[in-house]
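the two lines:
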Amino acid sequence: MTAILASLPIFVILVLMVGFRWGAARAGAAGYLAAFLLAVAFFGARTDVLAYAHTKSLLLTFDVLYIIWAAFLLYRVADEAGAIKTIGEALPRLTRDRGMLAILIGWVFASFLQGAGGFGVPVAVTAPLLVGLGFTPLVAVLIPSIGHGWAVTFGSLGSSFQALMSATGMGADALAAFPALFLGVSAVISGLLVAHIADGWAGVKRLMAPALIIGTVMGTVQYLIAVAGLWNIAAFGGGLAGLLVCIPLVQWGQKSSPGSRLPIAGKPLLVALSAYLILVLLTIIILLVPAVKDFFGQVAIAVPFPETTTTLGYISPAGTNRPIRIFTHAGAILVYSSLLAFLLYKRAGLYKNGAAKRILNGTLKSVLASSLSIAEMVAMAVLMQQSGMTEAIAQGLADMVGAAFPLVAPWIGAVGAFMTGSNTNSNVVFAALQMRTAELLAYSVPIILAGQTAGAALASVAAPTKVVVGASTAGMAGKEGEVLRALIGYTVILVSLISLLTLLAVFIWK
Amino acid sequence: MLKNKFSRQAIAFAAIILASILLFPSASSGPVTLTWGLLAMILASNVLSLFTK
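prediction for all of em together
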């Protein structure tokens, strides 16, 4: 009964977003208000519990939004210069094979865009390209939606992974390996699913070898970069490696004929990619050169919180938040990259008058609604944690599913992403709950959290909020239900794969 | 000003952030009424967001 009561705020968000199609900012506010009332009325949250929960949630919100705002800034800097358009236009010149185009644009390029930007950009950019190449609007939305899911956790320059770390207080050294492994495997399967969507079983058979090679390269590169500590560029690196491998593979199985491949101008493409090359370079220098890392890492926000106790006796121990290092934070590296890229594009004459103002206005308008919803949902999640509600749900879940928890954990993440439209939000809402349940059942916390975030990443592409964006860019506005129905089957396959991998992992790495 | 969706969301977001910053010193050494005033500000901001279509 206590667990059901404690889970009401989550159900409020689920029902309002899925059932009533509310936006995340409105539904997040409703979930927060429900959590606040329950915490005070039924879980004995005193004034100090409520107050410190809000300050903790502020720090967590800042930690996550720092990346989201800066990542979108970098994307706008590149987009305003026409860089995304240049990259997108170069790719169809490589091949005329329909299945290979689906792989190249809808899987590899969409994953690269997810690594670099995210926020619905992969589908918004590639779906119209695919329609222009002759795919039906439904297929044009399905291909990039399924194609980029594997890159979501470490994509958007690591914002979802940052949320996972912030919500659990665990570091990248403990958390990065398993999600990178699970998502690497799903990268390969995603490629085969893309081939199936584009060209049926014949496409899968014909493109099996290149899909396996490209998927393995992307998954492996993402894994290696993530475990090396550069998790903010792991999906970006995977996507970039995929593009590099894809180029010699694009004419796989085709008879070479004149006109099957058109020339590409190298210099404009290199200039277009320069924003992201700067990001890679700065990330490597700041995070891997100890002297630079130490120098920039001197300023940190670390707040010591006292112990709090609810009237029901639930204790949140005293402690300091995970320090937020202002100048080595992934968000800071993105800001530096944005400034340098802006200067470079400006010098190359790629901006029209008023570009800086348009970039800043565009960034502010695009991130405000998601910032508000993240602030509300983070506050709800921390309030639930501090008042013992998360503990109550974890106890209820542990009693209910018991040994089957590794199979269930990815589905919890998936439901969270489906209802909130975001891997980041799902991690904010559910990561602490998953961690506590794993502890109660004595399962490996990093593996269960990997199941959480990987399930959320792969299901986030089918979230109604994302489907609406994808459908509108491909000319399917008003037919979102059709897109959603077609997406669900593929999403279920991918999340089921993560369930099995989580189960397997907890038995191998006890 | 409050008729515009962007302005309403901006005000709600700014109020949540401001109140959350002030809650730490308030809860540490301030009067309980001030703490509840700040909590009320956050609640009101969420109500504003709830009714912003």
